[in-house]
Write a structure and sequence with these properties.
Elements: H1 2-31, E1 33-39, E2 42-46, E3 58-62, E4 68-72, H2 78-111, H3 115-159, H4 166-218
Antiparallel strand pairs: 1-2, 1-3, 3-4
Helix pairs in contact: 2-4, 3-4
Length: 219
């Protein structure tokens, strides 16, 4: 009788230690996962993930209840990550540009009381750009003539079998660079002048829309 009691007491004493161990085993079983991925057109599943499948798209499943724990896309290549970063940057720039346009339109609507004022403002811009065009054309013509004069000097020296001095060579190079810069500026001014007419019509449309929206909001 004493032996039976001692066994029962011993079992009860061991029970608290057994319960955590059992709970630990249950947790381990619940935490165990199955991995499923595609390989060579076939669906592969296993309780371990081989190194060659680490970068593949896969599904992780709870082994105890068969429920999907998570779904992971395949790891992107360096090129794909670079392309994704570029796309994100472009989207950010586009959003910033759109926000800037909205701010500009709002400022325009607040700055001009009427379409006539807006048209006059564009008229002033046209006058300024046309004056700038005149100045740029004269500067290009003058610099071109000066450069041609320097080139003739250098050509005369070479025809006389004389060397072209370094200061003359450097002056020719500098004036040529200045001429290219001026011609580029002139092209930009011409493009700006050509776009002003279209810009005015588009700006007027946005202005009317903003003013119309403002009137509706006040009503």
């Amino acid at each position: 009788m004493k032996t039976a009691i001692a066994c029962t007491v011993g079992a009860l004493l061991l029970l608290p230690a057994a319960i955590p161990a059992q709970q630990k085993n249950q947790k381990a079983a619940a935490a165990k996962k199955l991995y499923c991925w595609d390989e060579g057109g076939r669906r592969i599943c296993g309780d371990t993930l081989p190194p060659e499948a680490v970068d593949r798209a896969r599904t992780e499943i709870n082994a105890s209840n068969g429920k999907t724990v998570k779904t992971l896309d395949r790891t992107q290549t360096d090129e794909e990550r670079a392309a994704a970063a570029l796309a994100e940057k472009q989207a950010k720039l586009a959003a910033e540009s759109e926000a800037a346009v909205k701010r500009r339109d709002l400022a325009m609507a607040e700055s001009y009381a009427s379409e006539e004022e807006l048209r006059r403002a564009y008229g002033d811009r046209i006058v300024l750009i046309e004056e700038s065009l005149k100045g740029s054309r004269l500067a290009v013509l003058s610099l071109r003539q000066s450069l041609l004069g320097l080139l003739r000097q250098a050509a005369d020296l070479e025809l006389q079998s004389k060397s072209v001095a370094k200061p003359l060579t450097e002056k020719i190079q500098q004036q040529h660079a200045d001429l290219l810069h001026l011609e580029d500026t002139l092209q930009q001014q011409m493009a700006e002048r050509a776009s002003l007419g279209t810009d005015l019509e588009q700006t007027l449309e946005r202005y009317r829309a903003l003013k119309g929206a403002g009137s509706t909001a006040h009503d």
